[in-house]
Amino acid sequence: MRESKIEGIPYLGQRTDEVTIYAGPCSVESAEQFDEVAQCIKGLGLKWIRGGAFKPRTNPHSFQGLGEEALKIMKAAGEKYGLLTLTEVMDSAHCQMVSDYVDGLQVGARNFQNFSLLKKIGEVTANTHQMVLYKRGFAGTIAEWMAATDYITDKGNTNVVLCERGIRTFETATRFTLDIAAVPVIHKQSLYPVCIDVSHPAGQRDLVPALALAAVAAGADSIMIEVHPNPPAALSDGPQQLTPAQFEQLVVELRVVAAALGKKIV
Ligand code: PEP
Ligand code: MN
Question: Residues near 230 by Cβ (< 8 Å), separated by ≥ 6?
Answer without folding.
Answer: 243
